[in-house]
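Bug: token stream looks shifted between consecutive jobs. Job 1:
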Amino acid sequence: MDKVIHEGQKLGEVVSIFPKSSEIFNELKIDYCCGGHDSLGEALKEKGLNPNDIVEKLNEEYEKFIKSNSEYRDWRKEKPTDLMENILNTHHSFTKKELKEIDALLFKVLKVHFKHHGAELMKVHRLFGTLKTELEEHLIKEEENLFPLIKVYEETGNEKYKEDIYKFIRDTEDEHDAAGDILKELEQVTRDFKAPEGACTSFKLVYDKLHGLEKDLFIHIYKENSVLFNMI
């Protein structure tokens, strides 16, 4: 059987073909969301990994995925409005809920564990505060500006909307990069979202929720950068 996944493909394309590859990329710390336009081979070499081994593994897992008859949607073949609806209902809703819950929980953990873990938690608190503010504004701009423009363009095909859409896309991708940078800082400060030894349930939970937010944002950003924006 010919290999479906190869080194020359863009990371975003690999995830579109085989969605579960995102889990492998997460384990390897490969940025397939903001870095979705990079080739698989380049990304692996940059991490000092053997491309042949990883490509072989990806193809083996892809074959298992196909044989399992797992259902998935290749969003590249869908309409922009359908993808935007999925982004809104799946990722925007999740992000808003998690930002609110993490905010309250993190403040509680900061207060209770300030004496022993204050330095770490203050860094996490500040970084999360910046991320929360930027993401909330980002979501509103997508919902009120970018997505409605793309919808009108899809419905009318009027080229006059393209210039404004491209401007919003450039701004959106810059904001995606900024969010990605904050998440990388949070990874470092929290040792990949691992609470200190002996930490209480709430401490572990807030780090788990931050990790969950990061993984969902990776998929969210991938769907926009590597799929939706390429439809325009």
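Job 2, same session, no restart:
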Amino acid sequence: MINKGLSYVGIGILYLISLLPFWLLYLIADVLFVLMYYVIGYRRKVVQDNLKNAFPEKGAEERQLIERRFFRYFADLVVETIKGITISEKSLRQRMQVPNIEIIEKYFGEGRNIIGAVGHYCNWEMGALGFSIYTNKNRVIVYKPLSSEIFDNFFIKVRSRFGATLVSMKNTLRKLVELKNELTMSVLVADQTPVQHEAHFFTEFLNQPTAVFLGIEKLAKLTNAVVVFCDIKRVKRGYYTCTFVPLAEEPKQTAEYEITKLHVKYLESMIKHEPQYWLWSHRRWKFKSREQN
């Protein structure tokens, strides 16, 4: 009962913080960066190990610069995500622009469903909200449920504010079958870490064998959906673009694992270009393939 009460208090605090203007939120982010990086040292060892393994060719000073830039951006990401609780559609359109929405309209015009792959890169949460306002077709966001039912229900409401339908990973296929006669765009996170017993496929990602979900490829082939990558880039503080990049227009004609390797390599190229915007604090490499053991 106490935990439930604390959860509701926490949600109330997040809601009140989200009402603050962006300029004040960024002042909070400046303080948060100092606390995380210099005072608390939040997951710095995880970030340092990930960067060292991903970029062994870079010197210690260059990796440290990426580390500091990551934490600087991560503080912004935290407050921007909270702002997403109450952000207006007008503000969202200004801050998350889609320069080539005509690609999505083209595929829908051809009667094709679409699967969008997205990474934990830049502000993927704002990207999920943003994609919801640029089309009136079915919008499905596949998510991993939180351990707290109260917070899980809260963030479902937040993420579905502009018309998207939230579907848990295990119910994705059932939902897409339900919508098989309707045009739908589904968005899935491409770099989520699978649980160990579901880690059936490993590929090279950031200089190391990496377990990858096959969900995007499997769903694309089952539904014959076009696969695009949602390439989110930061323009300046608080402003982004999301460009849709076609990866596989005829998924049933692709070889096994081809689509998976395509979206993994595309995300890798984004990270190598501007590494500070990927979620380095995530324990992405929790276990090894059988060949490594």
